[in-house]
Design goal:
The chain is α+β, with helices and mostly antiparallel strands. The chain has a single domain, classed as Roll (Thiol Ester Dehydrase, Chain A). It has 4 helices and 5 strands, in the order E-H-H-H-H-E-E-E-E. Strands 1-3-4-5-2 form a 5-stranded antiparallel sheet, covered by helices on one side. The chain is elongated. It starts with 12 loop residues before the first strand and ends in a 5-residue tail after the last strand.
């Protein structure tokens, strides 16, 4: 999307993807940022409750963010986000998975203090190739409005 805050429509649903999850990236990310044994050691992970290597939840979130930035968040108007309301990891992500996202816009509003800025409330579901929801997030995006109020 390349528009302003007014271009986000409450109730709209958008789907984007996919991005592959490779074993090399799972291990590389985890070694650097989240070195739990079930993210970095295939043999030990096979003996874990997960029965094999799984991606860090933060890696899954990073892949989701890439899909959001490439497809949903406006390159022209985005000002980032004041934060995430809810983040849930539901199903483990494994090497070989293909992830996509479904974004639902819940509402938009203008800033009272800075009328040239608006907020969009939306939720994201991260889906694997079997259409299972592996992660969910509720958040608010902040961006420029086309016109000041």
């Amino acid at each position: 999307m390349d528009g302003y805050m007014e271009d986000y429509v409450a109730g709209s649903v958008h789907e984007y993807g996919s991005v592959p999850v490779t074993e090399e990236e799972v291990v590389e990310f985890a070694r650097r940022y989240d070195p739990h044994y079930f993210h970095v050691d295939r043999e030990a992970a096979e003996k874990s409750p997960y029965g094999g290597l799984i991606a860090s939840g933060w890696h899954t979130a990073a892949l989701m963010m890439r899909l959001l930035v490439d497809n949903f968040i406006s390159a022209r108007a985005s000002l980032g986000s004041p934060g995430v309301e809810k983040l849930r990891w539901i199903v483990p992500v494994r090497p070989g998975d293909e992830l996509s996202i479904r974004v639902t816009v819940h509402g938009t509003r203008r800033s009272r203090k800075k009328p040239g800025i608006g907020f969009v409330e939306f939720s994201v579901e991260v889906l694997n190739q079997r259409r299972e929801t592996v992660m969910t997030m509720d958040t608010v995006g902040m961006g420029l409005c086309r016109e000041k109020a």
